[in-house]
UniProtKB/TrEMBL annotation:
Pathway per the UniProt entry: Amino-acid biosynthesis; L-threonine biosynthesis; L-threonine from L-aspartate: step 5/5
Domain Tryptophan synthase beta chain-like PALP: start-end pairs: 99-386
Superkingdom to which the source organism belongs: Bacteria
Its EC number(s): 4.2.3.1
Reaction(s) the record says it catalyses: O-phospho-L-homoserine + H2O = L-threonine + phosphate
Listed InterPro entries: Ser/Thr_deHydtase_PyrdxlP-BS, Thr_synth_N, Thr_synth_N_sf, Thr_synthase-like, TrpB-like_PALP, TrpB-like_PALP_sf
Enzymatic class: lyase
Name of the protein in its database record: Threonine synthase
Annotated family: Belongs to the threonine synthase family.
Cofactors that this protein relies on: pyridoxal 5'-phosphate
Natural source organism: Rhodanobacter caeni
Keyword Amino-acid biosynthesis: yes
Gene: thrC
Length: 440
């Protein structure tokens, strides 16, 4: 398709009308409960990109077809310039030849969620709104999303953020980050699991009567405003690798709700030089079982050391199925594997001791998959996707090292601020009542 042809977005459940991307971003979830997907995934020529361009320039070129015909199209370069203010470097790892680390933790909250959250905030800020009441951004988080969204929207006029997180199930530093913003950002510590938080947010967003009183939008990985920008760092680095080495780059992606991995797959489907994609999961086996040949069986999440991946019902699975409608073809295309807590610990400890490289528990799942590939004699070029900085998960990582980790400056600043979170029961009614009392 040509770049000027408008692109519309349909629901994965096909029972809502197709909309422009602005509407899809403003709504989060489609009215029928499905996820918005482009009616066709655009294709793009690798030659369209400026080889000297920044990641913001890559993002602008890559995402232009997704915004074609939309009021935000003229703003896209400004949105990308505002969102992509930190780099996503590809760094060689000393452990094995042809092994790289795609570092996605150089943003304000030290996890890859900063890319999507900042892009979404830059989009929402520019969208005209019918009423002038503040927009409430609801976000369920297993730790990292909430902080990234809080940081991205902090002190933006006309918006307030309500973060729900499972009390006691995020790291002490994550909890501190979530409660440290104040102003227009409120943290609610929910007496339940991440899946409860996610369900409560979905119920509130789908409640038309509540929406009439409290205008709401979502910032979870179901939002296209978060998913699309995540494609940029894959495109940027895969293109660079391909220009330098003449081959596609393979990626191992730590996976929970499948937003990060799906972004990588969409880049490949667009025709850019991404090679094989492998999903590294923690003990939550929904995806590994499916790709192992079982029926898709969403289930309750189990708590692991890689808590941002504690997902039993990956929300982007609907988009994955839409992208690859033939199940047997899909199973051939992807590989998913579980890594248990003992192996996560062992991977962190071994690499720190032998190579002085320290990984967060999520990144360690992907590193373990690379160790296995190398042990089996695989010599291809693989990039392990580092989704967060190890210092964010000090309670897991430091005891394995036996010494404290250096904290990145942005994280250190956030940890110096005081933090507060309000308690909330894990029921849809509790959130409904809180929003009505505090939100209208
Ligand atoms: C969110 C997150 C993941 C999982 O990403 P998905 O897009 O949900 O698959 C992995 N690692 C870290 C550190 C995260 O914050």
């Amino acid at each position: 398709m040509s770049r000027t042809e408008p692109l519309f977005y349909a629901s994965t459940r096909a029972r809502s009308p197709a909309v422009e991307i602005s509407q899809a971003i403003a709504a989060g979830l489609a009215p029928d409960g499905g996820l918005y997907v482009p009616e066709v995934l655009p294709r793009i020529d690798p030659a369209a990109f400026d080889p000297q361009g920044s990641i913001a320039a890559t993002a602008t070129t890559l995402l232009a077809p997704f915004f074609a015909g939309d009021p935000l199209a003229d703003e896209l370069a400004a949105i990308c310039a505002e969102a992509f203010v930190f780099d996503a470097p590809l760094r060689p790892l000393p452990q094995h030849p042809n092994s790289l680390m795609l570092e996605l933790f150089h943003g304000p909250t030290s996890a890859f969620k900063d890319f999507g959250a900042r892009f979404l905030a830059a989009c929402l800020q520019r969208l005209p709104r019918a009423d002038n009441r503040p927009l409430t951004i609801l976000v369920a988080t297993s730790g990292d999303t909430g902080a990234a969204v809080g940081a991205a929207f902090h002190r933006r006029p006309g918006v307030r953020v309500v973060i729900l997180y499972p009390d006691g199930k995020v790291s002490p530093r994550q909890a501190h980050q979530l409660g440290s913003f104040g102003d227009n950002v409120t943290a609610l510590r929910v007496d339940g699991r991440f899946d409860d938080c996610q369900r409560m947010v979905k119920a509130a967003l789908n409640d038309a009567a509540l929406q009439a009183q409290v205008p709401m939008s979502s910032a979870n990985s179901i939002s296209l405003g978060r998913l699309l920008p995540q494609m940029s760092y894959y495109a940027h680095n895969a293109l660079r690798w391909w220009r330098a080495h003449g081959e596609p780059l393979n990626f191992i992606v730590p996976t929970g709700n499948l937003g990060n991995a799906l972004a990588c797959l969409w880049v490949r489907e667009m025709g850019l030089p991404v090679g094989e994609v492998r999903l590294a999961c923690n003990a939550n086996a929904t995806l590994a079982d499916y790709f192992g040949g079982a029926e898709y069986t969403p289930r309750d999440a189990v708590a692991t050391l890689a808590n941002a991946m504690d997902v039993g019902a990956p929300s982007n699975f609907e988009r994955l199925r839409w992208t690859f409608p033939n199940p047997s073809a899909l199973r051939q295309l992807l590989h998913a594997e579980c890594v248990d807590d003992a192996t996560i610990r062992q991977t962190i400890a071994t690499h720190a001791r032998q190579h002085g490289e320290v990984f967060c528990p999520h990144t360690a799942t992907a590193m373990h998959l690379l160790d296995q590939l190398r042990a089996a004699g695989d010599a291809a070029s693989w990039a392990v996707v580092a989704t967060a900085h190890a210092a964010k998960f000090e309670s897991v990582v430091e005891p394995l090292l036996g010494h404290p980790l250096d904290v990145p400056p942005a994280l250190a600043t956030m940890l110096q601020r005081p933090a507060t979170a309000l308690p909330l029961a894990a029921t849809d009614a509790a959130l409904h009542d809180w929003l009505l009392a505090r939100g209208a």
